[in-house]
């Protein structure tokens, strides 16, 4: 067994998932490619969204991939950090907004 | 300011050491295919040239900047400078061949004391495209260079300049402190005499090199971003952006090894290999001439000391037919020119 769950080298092997389920794997990569094409949103904007979501789902492969992709596209470190703060704000906000539920329950159970 | 590898007496200042690194390790243990193996798959080995259209002249390795990625290892300490005699030999070749593009590079070509004489004489011959690769800051480096925009205009020189990003931070980290501000000022001065302006014949192109261990993105979307940012922030216009991949040699190789990025970068280049780019790599229509007149397949091979595999090895002995029949010398650095949409001194090739 590997001693760690995540190995940076595994990112390069992502394409191999097709080998164990060709139809679904190919469909996924085709869909993935289309999602990131220029559309109503630019490829640059999508790259920043992907970076933010990578942090939300805490996927180290995705963080490596979309930091590299952002560098290629000329996205600055300030833009990347702002995107990560959007993630942090939403994630912390999501935790904190449940405080209302806690307050509701507290009030209901208290005299 | 950084020092050149030569000034530091770094092992990588020796071309043999660079070639040894590029041929061993992951390319010798079967992890990655060599460039020769790769092009054999598409029957493009040996790589052969087409008609010679471009002479790229390196008039000297002296430069006022010491850029972190420089494949020339140029800098103020470099003393290799082309003489008038070699320049005269180049002029003779231009008069007697069908070469239609003259591409002057360096170092900072303007620092060669005979640069202006050479430009004047070469422009009389009437090549179709006369390129000077200017680092921009030289225009603001010293009073004696302040009139360069007018000089370029007078001789209808096509100016190609390096600009790794539209922000100060990313530019200065690659090219040195203060480079961004001086470059912006120089671009505004070039615009002021008509360079890069819509409707003008005076061409001003920018070269983008990634400032790190990653490949350039799509050239045309980068151009759009550069144009928008430079126009909005500094009212600067230019014609085209050339996205150029950093090749793993010299100072960039040194950076890759020191930052533990070498293997990952080579994997990235090999994964991005595009067989369609091979047919149009710049060594197929360009001959590179060094400061002392030797001929090379490209500026990168010049920096690796790999002279052309031809009887015609020197500008004094330039023979179009001999050169057209040569095999181009390749190594693993060539993956840099075939990654993605390909890369050349004129940008993408595929």
Write the layout of secondary structure elements.
The complex is a heterodimer of chains A (111) and B (350).
Chain A: H1 22-35, H2 43-56, H3 60-72, H4 77-109
Helix pairs in contact in A: 2-3, 2-4
Chain B: H1 15-23, H2 35-41, E1 54-58, H3 84-96, E2 101-105, H4 115-125, E3 129-134, H5 137-141, H6 148-154, E4 158-162, H7 168-175, H8 179-192, E5 204-208, H9 219-234, E6 241-243, H10 250-258, H11 262-271, H12 275-278, E7 286-289, E8 295-296, H13 299-303, H14 320-324
Parallel strand pairs in B: 1-2, 1-7, 2-3, 3-4, 4-5, 5-6
Antiparallel strand pairs in B: 7-8
Helix pairs in contact in B: 3-4
InterPro entries (chain B): Aldolase_TIM, ArsS-like_C, rSAM, rSAM_ArsS-like, rSAM_sf
Pfam family, one (chain B): Radical_SAM
Domain Radical SAM core (chain B): 47-280
Descriptive overview:
Chain B: Residues 47-280 form the Radical SAM core domain. Chain B: Keywords: Iron, Iron-sulfur, Metal-binding, S-adenosyl-L-methionine. Chain B: Its cofactor is [4Fe-4S] cluster. By secondary structure, chain A is mainly alpha-helical. Chain A is 67% helix and 0% strand. The longest helix of chain A has 33 residues, at 77-109. Chain A is extended, with a radius of gyration of 19 Å. By secondary structure, chain B is of the alpha/beta class. Chain B has a single domain, classed as Aldolase class I (TIM Barrel), CATH 3.20.20.70. Helix content of chain B is 35%, strand content 10%. Chain B has helices spanning 15-23, 35-41, 84-96, 115-125, 137-141, 148-154, 168-175, 179-192, 219-234, 250-258, 262-271, 275-278, 299-303, 320-324, and strands spanning 54-58, 101-105, 129-134, 158-162, 204-208, 241-243, 286-289, 295-296. An 8-stranded mixed sheet of chain B has the order 6-5-4-3-2-1-7-8. Chain B starts with 14 loop residues before the first helix and ends in a 26-residue tail after the last helix. Classes of the chains: A mainly alpha (111), B alpha/beta (350). Chains A and B meet through α3 of A and α9 of B.
């Amino acid at each position: 067994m590997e001693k760690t769950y995540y190995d940076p080298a595994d990112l390069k092997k992502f394409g191999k998932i097709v080998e164990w389920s060709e139809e679904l794997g190919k469909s996924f990569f085709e869909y993935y490619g289309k999602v990131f094409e220029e559309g109503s949103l630019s490829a640059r904007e999508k790259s920043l969204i992907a970076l933010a979501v990578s942090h939300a789902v805490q996927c180290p492969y995705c963080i490596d991939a979309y930091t590299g992709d952002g560098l290629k596209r000329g996205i600055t470190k300030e833009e990347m950090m702002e995107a990560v703060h959007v993630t942090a704000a939403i994630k912390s906000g999501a935790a904190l907004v449940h405080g209302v539920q806690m307050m509701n329950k507290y009030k209901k159970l208290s005299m | 300011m950084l020092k050149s590898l030569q000034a530091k007496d770094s092992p990588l200042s020796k071309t043999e050491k660079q070639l040894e690194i590029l041929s061993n390790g992951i390319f010798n243990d079967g992890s990655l295919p060599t460039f020769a193996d790769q092009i054999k798959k598409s029957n493009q080995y040996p790589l052969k040239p087409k008609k010679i259209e471009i002479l790229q002249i390196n008039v000297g390795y002296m430069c006022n900047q010491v850029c972190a990625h420089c494949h020339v290892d140029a800098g103020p300490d470099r003393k290799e400078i082309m003489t008038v005699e070699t320049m005269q030999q180049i002029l003779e070749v231009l008069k007697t061949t069908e070469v239609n593009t003259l591409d002057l590079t360096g170092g900072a070509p303007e620092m060669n004391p005979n640069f202006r004489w050479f430009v004047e004489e070469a422009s009389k011959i009437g090549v179709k495209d006369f390129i000077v690769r200017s680092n921009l800051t030289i225009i603001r480096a010293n009073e004696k260079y302040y009139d360069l925009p007018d000089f370029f205009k007078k001789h209808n020189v096509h100016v190609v300049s390096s600009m790794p990003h539209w922000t100060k931070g990313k530019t200065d980290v690659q090219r040195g402190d203060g480079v961004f501000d001086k470059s912006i000022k120089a671009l505004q001065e070039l615009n002021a005499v008509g360079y890069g302006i819509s409707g003008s014949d005076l061409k001003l192109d920018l070269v983008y090199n990634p400032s790190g261990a990653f490949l350039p993105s799509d050239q045309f979307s980068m151009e759009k971003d550069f144009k928008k940012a430079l126009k909005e922030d500094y009212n600067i216009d230019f014609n085209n952006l050339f996205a150029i991949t950093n090749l793993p040699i010299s100072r960039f190789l040194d950076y890759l090894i020191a930052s533990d990025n070498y293997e990952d970068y080579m994997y990235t280049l090999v994964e991005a290999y595009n067989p369609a780019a091979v047919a149009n790599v710049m060594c197929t229509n360009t001959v590179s001439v060094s400061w002392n007149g030797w001929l090379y397949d490209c500026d990168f091979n010049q920096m690796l000391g790999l002279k052309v595999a031809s009887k015609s090895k020197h500008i004094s002995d330039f023979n179009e037919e001999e050169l057209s029949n040569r095999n181009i010398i390749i190594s693993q650095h060539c993956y840099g020119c075939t990654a993605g949409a390909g890369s050349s001194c004129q940008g993408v090739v595929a």
